[in-house]
Amino acid sequence: MISSTSFVTKWYITLFANTVPYQTQLRLWDVFLLEGRDALVIAAVAILWVLKDHISAPQANFETILSLLSSTFVFEDENALFKWMDRLLTDGKLREEMDSWRAEWARLVAEGKSGKALL
C-alpha cells in the first residue's frame, strides 16, 4: 500500500508544479486563489481518478505506481477538468462534507490518533 503522503505532499507543497503542464498549473492556481484549499484536493482527486485503472491494475507494484504518481500528468481535456472542478466546488453539500472531514482530522490530530487513521 502506498501512503498518500508519498506523492500528494509534493503536489500540495509545490501547488502542482512539475505535476501538470505550466498552463494547467496557472489555471489551478487561479482556482485555488478564488476557491481556497478545496480546489487542491479536488485537483488531486481528478488526477487519481484518471489514473485509477493504472494504479489498481493487478501488475502494478509500488515502484510503478509511485513513478506514475510522481511524473508530469497531462489531462486529455483540460477544459473538461476545470468544468468538473467548478461543478464540485459549487456543490455546497460537498464543501460542507470536506469541512467536516477536516474538522474530524483536526480532532484526531489533537487526540494523538491521526497515526492510526485509515485515509
UniProtKB/TrEMBL annotation:
It comes from the Eukaryota. One of its GO terms (molecular function) is small GTPase binding. Residues 1-36 form the Rab-GAP TBC domain. InterPro entries: Rab-GAP-TBC_dom, Rab-GAP_TBC_sf, Rab_GAP_TBC_domain. It holds the Pfam family RabGAP-TBC. This is Rab-GAP TBC domain-containing protein. It comes from Rhizoctonia solani.
